[in-house]
Amino acid sequence: MMPGTMLRGGRYRLQELLERQEWLNGVFEATWSGQDAQRAGAQVIICELVIPESSSAAVQSMLRTATMTLSSIGRHPRVPALLDAFSDQGRSFFVFEMVEGESLLARLRRSGRALPEQEVVECCLQIVDVLETMAQQTPPLVHGLIRPEHIVVARSGSQYLLTNFSIVLAGGATQFISGLDRSRLSPYLPPEFMRGAVDSRTDLYSLLATAYHLVTGSPPTAMSGSIAPAQRLNPLVSSEFEAILSKGLRPIASQRYQSPAELRHDLLALRSAIGEAGSVVEQWPEQSIPLSPRPASTLASTSTQAPASPSPVPDSVAQALPLMLGAVLEEEEQRLLLPRPEDLPPMRESNDTLNAALWVAGILVALIAVVIFARGLF
Predict the structure, then answer these.
(1) For 271-285, 293-307, 312-326, which range has the lowest pLDDT when averaged over its residues?
(2) Which of 6, 237, 264, 361 is 20 to 30 Å apart from 132, CA to CA?
(3) Where is the composition biased (Low complexity) (predicted)?
(4) Quick one: pLDDT at residue 275?
(5) Predicted model pTM
(6) Which of 28, 24, 298, 62 is nearest to 178 (CA)?
(7) In this structure, are 235 and 318 located in the same domain?
(8) Cα(140)–Cα(137) distance, rounded to whole angstroms?
């Protein structure tokens, strides 16, 4: 497709192609910035998914699964909400809210130096919280594309958001990745990914590979079968964080972190140690660092995209996906009819012992009055 293409009866307009991820058998995901005419031209992120034979029952089932899982994880405060899902011109589209902020890759390039370890640890802790929520879904959700450009620092500077989920992996379609050549994948993915072995450990590896890049300025490229220690590239990386990165980036999955909870335990211990040591951002040097370009597999020139001919009749997926998304959102609205505990007004402070004593005294006075009144009658 080309910039300026109108979708869903003119509601959405494609603006700029941000990245493109190629899978097997002609399957690819393209991420666009766009506008939503029904929301006063609000900026949105539109993920275009192209799958041959998209009308098959298997593909439609995968799309419904992706819609459900992405709608569910979109309720997390650190994940962009899924706003719409539909098919148009023989392709599937997923519309997400636009996140305002700066990606970690952009921050790294803007600063020209490694990010403070304390900041990277805090980022990892917040994203691990998202990964734990994803692991608790049925079936568990795998992001599959975690890297510096897909983690955004909110404008407040204290919140980190996980963006750009893979639609293919959200739908569980691992058959499109098994056998991929390593050159078509990012350096933030574990070795077993090429064999189609995908689970929650995939995202844990990618998160720590991202952290490695942030504190060293270089992506984790394996040399002679292993990744160079982070302290070799940045001597100011602590031994504790070096140990976490070393364990998390081992080539064998069974030797790495097995769950988000396990990684969070070590990160919390490290954060506590950093706080006690009084580590501050100013301790980091103002030295320039080499920054590698974004992998070619994630970028595509818009000049190679030919506009697709419009489909006069919407297919069954175009009808099924919005209905599925609407049912999920309606269920969520019903759940929100009751206020959350944190939204309730605070209870008035009181002295329970004093109140009980006053009640007992009042009862005794009432009993004495009744006895006196009864004697007066007789």
Answers:
(1) 293-307
(2) 237
(3) 295-313
(4) 74
(5) 0.76
(6) 24
(7) no
(8) 5
